[in-house]
Amino acid sequence: MNILLIGSGGREHALAWAISASPLLDRLYCTPGNAGIASLADCIALDVSDHAAIVAFCEKNDIGLVVVGPEAPLVAGLADDLDKAGIKVFGPSAAAARLEGSKGFTKDLCAKYNIPTAAYARFRNEAAAQDYLSGQDAPYVVKADGLAAGKGVTVAETLDDARAAVSDIFAGRFGADGAEVVIEAFLDGEEASFFALCDGEHALPLATAQDHKRVGEGDTGPNTGGMGAYSPAPIMDEALCARTLDEIIQPTLKAMADMGCPYKGVLYAGLMIGSDGPQLIEYNVRFGDPECQVLMMRLKDDIVTLLLGSADGTLDKMSARWHDETALTIVMAAKGYPGTPQTGGEISNLDEATSDHKVEIFHAGTKAENGKITAAGGRVLNVTALGDSVAEAQARAYKAVDKIDWPDGFCRRDIGWRAISRGS
Ligand code: AMP
Ligand code: GLY
């Protein structure tokens, strides 16, 4: 079968890598792709917001499955338009993608179906939101309702900072994504990510991971898309995984089906593990980036079979098996990230860095120019390794990082610290 993959990040390179190993694959296309994906797929320039153009490409090239990496095309209804044209797609409809596209929608769903999450209130009016904040305790959690390019969440230590965040959103900082504000109670605990494939009715749990969202060592500094991750997350033992499935994922699938918008695709639950067990911080309707990179390194089964199971509604007949080893990925970013990254610098020695067969380098913001790889974005490379423990995978990944020659790049040197400090 021919497959079209949509996206250009490390997540999509990892998906392309896994899809390329499938016996079901004839030809892989990717739009827009990156320099790493180009070694596995035909990278083509299509306007992803032009759904008719995507449909026409699929028809012309006999595409049997479209795999959508990022959330924005899903929230914009790409899966709906492909479905209408009779083209199979991995990813939810726009109505189901509200689980990521509207924080208020998800909070109301949790309230109605008794899914554990932080207490909250929704506001469309600044005065009412500011008034509500006065009655809350620090830290304050203020969120723009919509996608806001992943930057709509503020956790504020002081009332003044929380008030400023509310004002900012209502002043239009995130455009229509900030037409509504959600204010939540602060949850205490350790964060973990749980991934499940869904087919509208059934959930097939995949694996767990932990991300490092802050740019600085020791989890300090501004938030990023993620500076590194590992899987599995040692905190997510069997009992916590079972509770997450029973108390969070399954009731969500039932709620979405009841509402007439069954959820298909991967459901990524961002969890806070506190003294009462798992609570939902947020849902994403796509694989995490860089969490997907560590998941794909550990997956033993054919990813294409699983993605088709989600699209076809046959996940109840499937299972997913994982390597016992830990996978750990280190994001190398261009200096300046998450502000303005220094792009254009040459990156070399990548082949030498992957000489260890337990190391893979997934590209994110890279470009190939005159036989050279250059940096073309904020997050640029994902240096990923397997090991018998988090510590071993970490050592192997940093050894590979240290072979890469890229003067404009940087990475955190402590990816995995939390797990390693508890002996994992
Ligand atoms: P989100 O964009 O929803 O993932 O939020 C970004 C980050 O803000 C999360 O990864 C958490 O670290 C933090 N966060 C969001 N909501 C809460 C909450 N209710 N309590 C504590 N931390 C939160
Ligand atoms: N790494 C966090 C995310 O993909 O949302």
Can you characterise this structure?
This protein is of the alpha+beta class and about 425 residues long. It has 4 domains: about 1-90, Rossmann fold (3-Layer(aba) Sandwich); about 125-180, Dna Ligase, domain 1 (2-Layer Sandwich), CATH 3.30.1490.20; about 190-315, 2-Layer Sandwich (D-amino Acid Aminotransferase, Chain A, domain 1); about 325-420, Glycinamide Ribonucleotide Synthetase, Chain A, domain 4 (Alpha-Beta Complex). It is built from 14 helices and 23 strands. It has helices at about 10-20, 50-60, 70-75, 80-85, 100, 105-110, 125-135, 160-170, 240-260, 290-300, 305-310, 350-355, 390-400, 415-420; strands at about 1-5, 25-30, 40-45, 65-70, 90, 120-125, 140-145, 155, 180-185, 190-200, 205-210, 215, 220-225, 230, 265-275, 275-285, 325-335, 345, 360-365, 365-370, 370-375, 380-385, 410. Strands 10, 11, 14, 15, 16, 17, 19, 22 and 23 form a 9-stranded antiparallel sheet that branches. β1 (about 1-5), α1 (about 10-20) and β2 form a beta-alpha-beta unit. α7 runs antiparallel to α8. The two termini are about 40 Å apart. The model has no long low-confidence stretch (mean pLDDT about 95). The site of adenosine monophosphate has 12 residues, from β8 and β16.
Give the arrangement of secondary structure elements.
Blueprint: E1 2-7, H1 10-20, E2 27-32, E3 42-43, H2 51-60, E4 63-68, H3 72-75, H4 78-84, E5 89-90, H5 98-101, H6 103-112, E6 120-123, H7 126-134, E7 140-144, E8 153-156, H8 159-170, E9 181-184, E10 190-199, E11 203-211, E12 214-216, E13 220-223, E14 228-231, H9 238-258, E15 264-274, E16 277-284, H10 291-298, H11 303-312, E17 326-334, E18 346-347, H12 350-353, E19 359-363, E20 366-369, E21 372-375, E22 379-387, H13 390-401, E23 409-410, H14 417-421
Parallel strand pairs: 1-2, 1-4, 2-3, 4-5
Antiparallel strand pairs: 6-9, 7-8, 7-9, 10-11, 10-15, 11-14, 12-13, 14-17, 15-16, 17-22, 17-23, 18-21, 19-22, 20-21
Bound molecules: adenosine monophosphate (AMP) and glycine (GLY).
